[in-house]
UniProtKB/TrEMBL annotation, chain A:
Keywords: 4Fe-4S, Electron transport, Iron, Iron-sulfur, Metal-binding, Transport. This is Redox complex linked to DsrAB, iron-sulfur binding subunit. Residues 85-114 form the 4Fe-4S ferredoxin-type domain. It comes from the Bacteria. The keyword Transferase does not apply. InterPro entries: 4Fe4S_Fe-S-bd, 4Fe4S_Fe_S_CS, Helical_ferredxn.
UniProtKB/TrEMBL annotation, chain B:
Keywords: Cell membrane, Membrane, Oxidoreductase, Transmembrane, Transmembrane helix. It is found in: Cell membrane. The keyword Oxidoreductase applies. The keyword Membrane applies. The gene is dsrM. One of its GO terms (molecular function) is oxidoreductase activity. This is Redox complex linked to DsrAB, transmembrane subunit. GO terms for cellular component: plasma membrane. It is a multi-pass membrane protein.
From TrEMBL, chain C:
This is Redox complex linked to DsrAB, cytochrome c subunit. Keywords: Membrane, Transmembrane, Transmembrane helix. The keyword Membrane applies. The chain crosses the membrane at residues 12-30. It comes from the Bacteria.
Length: 541, 343, 137
């Protein structure tokens, strides 16, 4: 964590609405270190063929834009107005009632009025009015219109990369205006000028080339899983060796590469491997991992619709090549928004796959019968419901668990009960955070949508404040010491957020908890959980 | 004091003066009574249709409902059938709740930092309540006004008038004569609600910060409409039969200017006309937009049912073959299966 | 991309409903003769030439006048009204107003129906009492 980051108490004191002395159109942009991510690396931009790759620095005056950048943006807006009814309506119908204002975690955390969803949208809307509406052309600033200047563009860049596309504001908007949609379009426009952040651009290039955001090459990917195989064998005495790129397997499994790479996601990954081994031994379940489609997440989604489609295409392509029946997806947030709301429309039809049926319980996943991709939480909830897993929840007794609904599965899918059902069946101690901070009202981790870099730590700690505060509440009230989630970005960013705000709370994935409780056929007497921590009652041994 | 609301207030005052002197001094009854209202009605209807048609020209490429409850998944998990609808029926219920009862606004809560360290989310339904009161009162007022535009007056208008005037209050009748004729609640509710909506833009700092002149203008205009209407009904009485003669003339395309209808009526009429003209060019189009919002009017069933994007186009992808070509040797060495043994 | 309407059926249907509602005044009255009511004055009223106040004031403000009369009579037991010309009247709906305007259906009701007004005068003053008495005789 950055050394110069303010103390939590200072950050809290600084939170809350701070009204600038001048109106928002007249308040100049101040790009502050700690609040922004570094500019995209030109090599990454070039690799995927996106516009204007060059070295640039947001703190310098010259952003090295193409000469006709205003024309490019104007045309870009026009094209998108014609392509997206959502964009057009959201530009037109906002009444600025302000209901969204204090629903944004970044506004709560930073107090910056331009982080109110309504004002974030107005940054773009003001230019839209100026260029495309009669009222804006006649009445100018009185109608809330302003021309696109370099300062306005910089403001776009700064604030569209201070939005995690979590959709919380859209839940409260009387017209369903979704700032995520506006940010998505805003970032598309910025990308037309080569204005991405590197924390997005480089994962995108990596994913395009190697199949995953982290740039793990196929042999290394296998190596990393082999490493988990060894760890698991030490803990359970069982060899869970998975299969890779196996043609003719029943099911293809795709999960975010973050879980292969860093703690505590790695324990979730080990959880998958243990579960699949259990199902294979008991029920002949035949699943394979792919090194080509080795990424569930999709940072293309944070770049443009087109980039999202380009990266997402690998899932179906690989399923087709391997000849599997259907696809099982791991725990990830935005990955599931893409799968649930975009994938088949973009890259379907998935007519080479079968309607997904659990080979173990016979359950037909009717809700996924067209996309043919099932969420691991849906899949496991069904297994537990049919009593197909032998579980010892007491092995998780050291964990007092709460569950964080990740934004995208909550508000872009509605998967609320499945993970809860699973967790409650594998843990004995479960407490919900306050109702206004979970389910469809859930607060973002503060680092989603590609903002989980290191250089914007202050922004992340501010944005994660409401979530952390709710965790703190259940920590103090119920002694919660484990924050469970179904999202790889959560697992990557919560440890830092918890360390900062609630240091006593650790982070886990659903599948890790499952694997800890799962009694494998022929396993040895386990002394520790997947993290090597002693199991309850085994502390003295 | 800020320029945004001062400008809007001045604009409405100027409109008042234009109507007042236009009729009283210049005698332009025909302009303000016939020409402008006809033009306004035409611009409103054509403009509204044009705007909605313009939205319709843009497709909805992806299904992006905001899911506000449990999805339809396993049969034993209870779905939030209208907060996260998977069928058209659910969507219809969701839309009805949204349009008629402002379901999303009802979720509203207020954030507060308690004791300097505890974030709290506090009950806050005032915006919902007054927004609902405002819109419903406005609707009732509009329907009630059909008594001026229909002969015979339809029974449902009369029934609504009966309901609206159900509370018989006559207060300060010696001085003010409020209550004679019988009080219609809707007009007063409308005025109170619009004043509330204005005051929150003035006093709630963050709402004040985001408010534009184009947010204040319709509020002042509607205030003007409500006040001039209330004045006419309870205070500066106008010849109501004369007014109806005139409005019926407009409705039957045989307009004529009635005798003895006071200038306040022309003020009222100009305010309404300006509101109608302003409507299609402004945020007031949320009346049409709320029906078309893709985060509300779509079922969350895009995993169960294929949805087509009309402009879907092929993109450059990194194929498996290209991938294997790059990494083949490493894959073979690691024992990963490959399609071709060598390049 | 060719310009076309998407979800055309639903949106056109919605717009048709909108236009039907918005143009209600124009089509509802088609083919209905709906002239403004012409008031019939009784011979007695014609002979009087002028009412309590001027015609204009009566048109706009008779309900207020009647309300004031009622309060005066009921609360102050004062039945004498002197108008701006100094002429005196007995403050009574039944005995003064309806004395001249004994044709309620052709006088009062016509305008009230036209303007969709339902005054509660008639809740008590069922009819012109004089006419009733005459009928009895």
């Amino acid at each position: 964590m950055a050394d110069d980051l303010a103390k939590p108490e200072e950050l809290l004191e600084n939170s809350g609405y701070k009204r600038p002395a001048t109106g928002w159109m007249d308040t100049p942009i101040d790009i502050r270190p700690g609040m922004y991510c570094y500019a995209s690396n030109p090599k990454s931009v070039e690799y995927v063929g996106l516009p204007n790759p060059r070295q640039w620095n947001p703190l310098e005056d010259d952003w090295k834009l193409p000469e006709n950048w205003q024309e490019i943006v104007h045309k870009g807006i026009k094209e998108r107005l014609e392509k997206f009814r959502s964009f057009k309506i959201f530009m037109d119908v906002c009444v600025r009632c302000g209901a969204c204002a204090d629903k944004c975690h970044f506004f709560i955390g930073t107090g910056d009025p331009k982080n109110m969803p309504v004002l974030r949208a107005e940054l773009l809307r003001s230019v839209y009015r100026n260029d495309f509406t009669t009222a804006g052309k006649i009445f100018k600033s009185l109608a809330g219109a302003r021309p696109l200047t370099l300062d306005v563009l910089k403001e776009w860049w700064y604030y569209f990369f201070q939005c995690t596309e979590c959709r919380r504001c859209s839940v409260f908007c009387p017209y369903g205006i979704d700032t995520a949609e506006i940010t998505i379009i805003g970032r598309e426009l910025l990308n037309l000028l080569g204005l991405n952040i590197d924390w997005i651009a480089t994962p995108v290039a990596n994913c395009y080339r190697t199949g995953n955001h982290l740039g793990i090459q196929p042999h290394a990917f296998k190596d990393m899983l082999e490493f988990f195989v060894e760890d698991i064998e030490d803990i359970t005495g069982i060899n869970v060796e998975p299969s890779y790129n196996k043609k003719g397997a029943d099911i293809l499994f795709i999960t975010p590469s973050g879980d292969v790479f860093a703690d505590p996601g790695t324990y979730t990954c080990m959880g998958y491997m243990i579960l699949f081994k259990y199902l294979k031994d008991k029920y002949g379940f035949d699943i394979t991992w792919s090194t080509y489609a080795s990424e569930g997440g999709n940072f293309g989604f944070f770049t443009s619709h087109e980039t999202m489609k380009r990266l997402n295409s690998k899932m179906y392509a690989e399923a087709k090549r391997l000849g599997v029946k259907w696809i099982l997806g791991g725990e990830c947030g935005h990955m599931w928004r893409v799968i649930n709301q975009y994938m088949e429309t973009m890259n379907g039809p998935a007519d080479f796959l079968e309607e997904p049926v659990s080979p173990i319980t016979g359950t037909k996943f009717e809700n996924a019968k067209s996309t043919k991709m099932v969420h691991i939480a849906e899949f496991v909830a069904d297994l537990i419901k049919h009593d197909k897993l032998e579980l010892d929840p007491s092995r998780n007794d050291n964990q007092i668990v709460t569950f964080h609904d990740s934004c995208n599965p909550a508000r872009g899918m509605g998967m609320l009960e499945e993970p809860r059902y699973v967790i409650k069946n594998v843990c004995n101690n479960f407490y919900e955070m306050p109702a206004n901070t979970i389910r469809e009202n859930t607060f973002c981790c503060g680092s989603g949508a590609g903002l989980n870099a290191g250089e914007n730590m202050e922004l992340r700690m501010c944005g994660g404040m409401p979530r952390a505060n709710a965790v703190k509440y259940v920590h103090e009230k119920h002694g919660v010491n484990m924050l469970a989630c179904v999202c790889a970005i959560d697992r990557a960013v919560f440890p830092a957020l918890m360390e900062y705000w609630v240091p006593e709370v650790d982070v886990t994935g659903m599948s890790e908890l499952v694997a800890n409780a799962l009694i494998m056929p022929g396993e040895k007497d386990r002394d520790t959980d997947l993290r090597g921590e002693p199991l309850p009652g085994k502390e003295d041994e | 004091m800020n320029k945004n609301y001062m400008f809007s207030l001045i604009a409405v005052i100027v409109l008042f003066l234009i109507a007042y002197f236009g009729v009283e001094t210049a005698g332009l009854h025909v302009l303000f009574g016939i020409v402008i209202p006809y033009l306004a009605a035409l611009i409103f209807i054509v403009g509204f249709v044009y705007r909605v048609r313009d939205w319709a020209y843009s497709p909805v490429p992806f299904r992006i409902p905001s899911t506000c409850g449990q999805q339809a998944s396993l049969p034993w998990i209870r779905q939030a059938t209208y907060d996260n609808p998977s069928s058209n029926g659910g969507v219809i219920v969701r839309m009805i709740l949204e349009v008629l009862f402002f379901r999303s606004l009802f979720r509203n809560m207020r954030f507060e930092l308690k004791g300097g360290k505890k974030l709290s989310y506090i009950w806050e339904k005032w915006l919902w309540l007054f927004a609902l009161a405002f819109h419903w009162a406005f609707l009732v007022v509009v329907i009630r006004h059909l008594r001026f535009f229909a002969e015979p007056v339809p029974f449902w208008v009369q029934f609504l008038e009966y309901l609206d005037g159900f509370v018989r209050v006559e207060f300060l009748s010696d001085v003010l004569q409020v209550g004679l004729p019988g009080v219609f609640m809707s007009g007063l509710v409308l005025l109170v609600a619009v004043i509330f909506l204005f005051l929150r833009r003035v006093f709630i700092s963050q709402v004040n910060y985001i408010s534009l002149a184009s947010d204040y203008f319709p509020l002042f205009l509607i205030m003007g409409i409500a006040i001039s209407g209330i004045l006419m009904r309870y205070f500066i009485k106008v010849d109501i039969v004369g007014v109806k003669e005139f409005t019926m003339g407009l409705a039957t395309f045989s307009p004529s200017i009635p005798e003895g209808v006071g200038v306040i009526f022309y003020v009222h009429l100009l305010f309404v006309s300006v509101l109608l003209v302003y409507f299609p060019f402004s945020k007031l189009m949320h009346l049409g937009g709320v029906f078309l919002s893709p985060t509300r009017n779509l079922a969350n069933n895009s995993r169960a049912k294929r949805h087509i994007n009309p402009w879907n186009y092929p993109v450059h992808v990194h194929t498996y073959e290209e991938y294997e070509d790059e990494f083949r040797e490493k894959m073979i060495e690691a024992g990963l299966p490959v399609e071709k043994e060598s390049n | 991309m060719p310009r076309q309407m998407y979800d055309k059926g639903k949106i056109v249907a919605g717009l048709v409903i909108f236009v039907i509602i918005a143009t209600f005044p124009f089509w509802y009255n088609i083919g209905k003769a709906a002239p403004a009511p012409e008031l019939k004055l009784t011979d007695k009223a014609k002979a009087e030439k002028e009412c309590v106040m001027s015609v204009t004031d009566m048109k706009a403000g008779h309900m207020q006048l009647l309300d004031e009369w009622r309060d005066e009579v009921v609360r102050s037991a004062n039945r004498l009204y002197v108008n701006s010309k100094g002429k005196s009247f007995n403050m009574s709906l039944s005995n003064t107003c309806l004395d001249c305007h004994s044709n309620k259906a052709d006088f009062c009701d016509k305008c009230h129906d036209y303007a969709s007004v339902r005054p509660y005068c008639w809740d008590c003053h069922i009819d012109n009492p004089k006419a009733t008495e005459e009928a009895k005789e």
